[in-house]
Structure formats: structure tokens, C-alpha cells
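Example S7 (C-alpha cells).
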């Protein structure tokens, strides 16, 4: 494990800490205390070639500006809440409207823009990082003091496990996720040839503002059918500007988790996701427009990455028919999501 301190040019109260977790296979990840951002995920392919499979900036200060949530921990509520409002126990709560008429990813200053308390650790002999953050009552409009712990662990078999816990002193809503942009080949190329399998038979229908209508539709016979391995690019133009949809998992697999897998023949790499969450937002970088550049000066273009955001359904606080996201005092929010690299 390595820890690097980068002086913050804009905020003397908080320096950037970059913590590197490593294993004996040559895999390593870099994580910032700012936003809990996963800034790199370096792996060695079966052919011995090293690759970094996430989009990132070169300078930590660039994360302080506007960017599309590269590698962030998202909270208090991942995805969208319609109209920036919800009702809980008879009271209306008004949130920031930072995505057109809606609330997105926790608001103007969500967990992605917080400096977290970082504690390097060892979990079952593996490098780990424990991040802690307290979101005060009224933060971005949400009720309750919410205490959040996120633990990143890099295992010896190339799995990055992310475990989330949260506690509150007032009823509130919670939906956390990790928002890394993956490309298993080259970040300057579209991910059309990546092969995706999502073990989900249903998805949420959305309106023009990407808000669920309440309908849960069957994927079969549609561009959303990834129940069998399919290229991401085969039908992406049928859902222009691309995929930004919530897939609803069914029964858990034998290990008690839900499974997703992406493979890339040209790089010889694959990525498996396992999660306890009931759904996943699959997003294909539809709003990347070449204006942002990252490692090696590469400009990130539309569809040059994909996100696998394990989570509860978007806008659940306004849909009582969806799985609940309310956390009460005395309860503990628990979630675990694992991203595991495979070599083809």
C-alpha cells in the first residue's frame, strides 16, 4: 500500500490523499479521499500488457471542476429524483434541481464533492481503505444526520470489493453507488465491441427526462436484452443517445448476489460485477463530447466508456411500488458490490 499527499491549491484545509491498494498479481487501484474517487484500476492482461481500465484525469485538481462523476462515490441518493422532491412521513422535502427539473446523484454538493476521512487498513490480509463521511441534517435538503462508511478492498484474485454502511438519526432515504467509467480496451475508442451480459429480464421504462414512469418492462425482443452475451454496439442506436437505463435483477445467483459480465476480445480482459443491490444503471457515456481529456491526453468521446452502477431504483421515494429506500434510526444500510477482473 502506498499513500501520497498532493497539496490542494484551492483549499488549504484539505489536501488530496491518494491511496494505492496493490496485490501480488500486479493489479493496483488509486483512490482519493476527495469523493472516494477511483482514479485508476491498473491490471495486467494475459498477454502481459498493462492497462488502466477506468477513465480518469491526470491531476487531482481537475476533479474539483465540473465532470461527469468520474469514479465517484454517489450519495445520498444515486440517480434521479423527479422534480427534486419527495414525501416522507407526511413531510415534503425539497432537494436541489441539478439535472433539468430533477435531482441527480445527491445534488450540487453530494458525496462526490466531499473530503472523506481516509483510514488505510488490512482486511483478511488484503490492502483496504476505509472512508468515512457525515452528511449533516438538511444537507442538500435531505433529513437526518447520516454517517457513512465505505470500504474498498483489493483482493488477491483481482476483485475490488466495495462495502457500504450508513446510519441515521432521523428517517431519510439512502441509495449509494460507485460511478466509475470503464473501458477494457482503449479509452479513445467506443465500447461497441465489448460483449455484455446482464442477468436481468426486466428494465424500467423512462420518460424524456430519464425518470421512471413506473412501468417495468420485459427486455426480451428489445435492445435491452442482454440476457445472452451481446455486443454493446449492436443495438445502441435504437436507444439514442445510448443506454442510460435501470435493469431490474430477478432471483439472486447461488452465491446470493446478482451478476453482470463484460468482456473485450481485443484486450483479452473482462470485468465481472457482483452485487447485493436489486438493480443496476447501465450507462454508456452518452454525454461525453470530447471536451474532457484524461490520461495520455486522450479526449473522452461519446460511448467511449460504460458504467455499471449497482443501486436501488431511481426515483423510488416517489414510487411506493418500488423497493423501499427509507432508512430509519436504529437500522443499518448495508450494500456490497464487487468488480472483478478476468483474463480471457
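Recovered sequence:
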Amino acid at each position: 500500500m502506498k499513500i501520497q499527499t498532493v497539496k490542494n491549491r484551492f483549499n488549504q484545509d484539505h489536501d488530496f490523499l491518494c491511496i494505492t491498494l496493490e496485490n501480488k498479481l500486479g493489479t493496483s487501484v488509486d483512490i482519493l479521499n476527495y469523493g472516494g474517487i477511483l482514479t485508476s484500476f491498473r491490471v495486467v492482461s494475459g498477454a502481459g500488457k498493462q492497462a488502466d481500465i477506468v477513465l480518469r484525469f491526470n491531476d487531482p485538481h481537475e476533479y474539483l471542476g465540473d465532470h461527469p462523476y468520474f469514479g465517484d462515490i454517489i450519495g445520498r441518493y444515486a440517480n434521479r429524483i423527479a422534480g427534486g422532491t419527495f414525501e416522507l412521513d407526511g413531510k415534503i422535502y425539497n432537494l436541489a434541481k441539478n439535472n433539468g427539473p430533477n435531482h441527480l446523484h445527491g445534488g450540487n454538493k453530494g458525496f462526490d464533492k466531499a473530503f472523506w476521512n481516509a483510514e488505510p487498513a488490512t482486511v483478511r490480509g488484503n490492502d483496504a481503505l476505509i472512508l468515512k463521511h457525515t452528511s449533516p441534517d438538511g444537507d442538500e435538503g435531505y433529513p437526518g444526520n447520516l454517517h457513512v462508511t465505505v470500504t474498498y478492498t483489493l483482493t488477491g484474485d483481482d476483485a475490488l470489493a466495495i462495502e457500504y454502511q450508513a446510519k441515521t438519526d432521523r428517517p431519510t432515504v439512502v441509495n449509494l453507488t460507485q460511478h466509475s467509467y470503464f473501458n477494457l480496451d482503449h479509452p479513445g475508442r467506443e465500447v461497441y465491441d465489448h460483449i455484455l451480459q446482464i442477468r436481468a429480464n426486466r428494465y424500467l421504462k423512462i420518460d424524456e427526462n430519464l425518470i421512471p414512469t413506473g412501468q417495468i418492462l420485459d427486455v426480451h425482443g428489445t435492445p435491452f436484452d442482454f440476457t445472452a452475451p451481446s455486443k454493446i454496439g449492436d443495438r445502441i442506436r435504437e436507444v439514442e443517445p445510448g443506454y442510460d437505463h435501470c435493469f431490474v435483477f430477478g432471483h439472486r445467483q447461488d452465491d446470493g448476489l446478482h451478476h453482470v459480465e463484460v468482456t473485450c476480445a481485443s484486450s483479452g480482459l473482462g470485468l465481472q460485477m457482483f452485487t447485493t443491490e436489486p438493480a443496476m444503471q447501465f450507462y454508456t457515456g452518452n454525454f461525453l463530447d470530447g471536451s474532457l481529456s484524461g490520461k495520455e491526453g486522450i479526449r473522452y468521446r461519446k460511448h467511449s466508456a460504460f458504467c455499471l452502477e449497482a443501486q436501488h431504483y431511481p426515483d423510488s421515494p416517489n414510487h411506493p411500488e418500488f423497493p423501499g429506500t427509507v432508512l430509519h434510526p436504529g437500522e443499518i444500510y448495508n450494500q456490497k458490490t464487487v468488480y472483478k477482473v478476468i483474463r480471457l
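Notes on this example. The chain has a mean pLDDT of 96.
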